[in-house]
């Protein structure tokens, strides 16, 4: 079947509709935001908080805590397990820190002496 003069316009309309649909789908897959520790926030014994949750790349972890007595640092698996944070490791300390996640394993600890050992740490797997 031969295409008439309007077929180019119809093709462009189909492409615009497809682009709109993809945009709407992308908006519906918006990143999730999680407050670490839920209502209690970033505190002692929060280590099990991530269990049973599914985290995706682009999701945001929000750490809420008293910045005068706590902080949060992203560390490697060894530092997470041992609660020994490398010297000079930069920690966040605003009391309202947000971290956007990428695919892989992420480990966070409070660097204040004794706090990590009191399970103020989390391990998060991101798909």
UniProtKB/TrEMBL annotation:
GO cellular component, alphabetical, reads: plasma membrane
Which segment of the chain is annotated as a signal peptide?
Answer: 1-31
Task: From the Swiss-Prot or TrEMBL record, give the protein name.
Answer: Plantacyanin
Domain of life of the source = Eukaryota
Q: Which organism is it from?
A: Aegilops tauschii subsp. strangulata
Q: Which GO terms describe its molecular function?
A: electron transfer activity; metal ion binding
- Pfam families tied to this protein: Cu_bind_like
Instruction: Cite the Phytocyanin domain residue spans from the record.
Output: 32-127
Q: Which UniProt keywords apply?
A: Copper, Disulfide bond, Metal-binding, Signal
Q: InterPro entries this protein is in?
A: Cupredoxin (IPR008972), Phytocyanin-like (IPR039391), Phytocyanin_dom (IPR003245)
């Amino acid at each position: 079947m031969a295409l008439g003069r309007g077929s180019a316009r119809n093709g462009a309309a189909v492409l615009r509709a497809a682009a709109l649909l993809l945009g709407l789908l992308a908006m519906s897959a918006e990143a999730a935001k999680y407050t670490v520790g839920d209502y209690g926030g970033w505190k002692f014994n929060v280590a099990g908080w991530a269990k049973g949750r599914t985290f995706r790349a682009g999701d945001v972890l929000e750490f809420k805590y008293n910045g005068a007595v706590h902080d949060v640092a992203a560390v490697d698996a060894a530092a997470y397990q041992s609660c020994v944070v490398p010297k000079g490791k930069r920690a966040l300390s605003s009391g309202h820190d947000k971290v956007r996640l990428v695919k892989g394993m992420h480990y966070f600890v409070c660097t204040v002496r004794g706090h990590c050992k009191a399970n103020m740490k989390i391990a998060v797997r991101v798909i």
